[in-house]
Amino acid sequence: MRLAVLLSLPLALAACSNERPAAEADLFDRLSALCGQAFEGRVVSDDPRDADWASQVLTMHVRECSASEIRIPLHVGEDRSRTWVITREAAGLQLKHDHRHEDGSEDVLTQYGGMTITAPTETRAEFPADQFSRMLFDREGIAASMANVWSITLAETRFTYALDRPDRHFEAEFDLTVPVDAPPPPWGAE
Q1: For residue range 151-170, what is the model confidence (pLDDT) as tens digits?
Q2: What is the model's pTM?
Q3: Angstrom distance (rounded) from CA 180 to CA 186
Q4: Where are the beta strands (DSSP E) in 26-157?
Q5: Phi/psi of residue 81, each to 5°?
Q6: SS3 letters for 57-83?
């Protein structure tokens, strides 16, 4: 009995620790290491609904980084309305989509996203739609989006952003081997 208690003590102490899982820190820190750099990408999924995006140059800019937040504007051609916001929270990582109009005001569809519900790996995190997002999508009449699961994958040479739900897959891939000049600031950040 005494031996069992002693053997379980390290596990109990680890469970009470405030330290983040190593894989989560690795993914966030690896993404932070790209801060200041911009990369071009393209749509790699083949859904006809994405034809407009597929015809544009995509540019991601790891623009702002702190110990708890990374802001990554996504430019689709000349459209500078989108920013991915990845936040380190006590419960995991959070992804939000900050959408702005050219005058800097928020779009009606903004601040949607979710929290990781399983621990991110060193290279990947998945973000199912949170309650705020599901309510927003319901209010705006896009109920299919309530099942959204976004993901980011950070491989050695590429960054991938994806959206999945029943009957829908979108994926964009960015080449990390060739940084490009930083684009103009996203709308609302000037």
Answers
A1: 999 999 999 999 999 999 99
A2: 0.86
A3: 16
A4: 38-43, 58-61, 64-65, 69-76, 79-89, 92-99, 112-115, 124-128, 149-154
A5: -85, -10
A6: CEEEECCEECCCEEEEEEEECCEEEEE
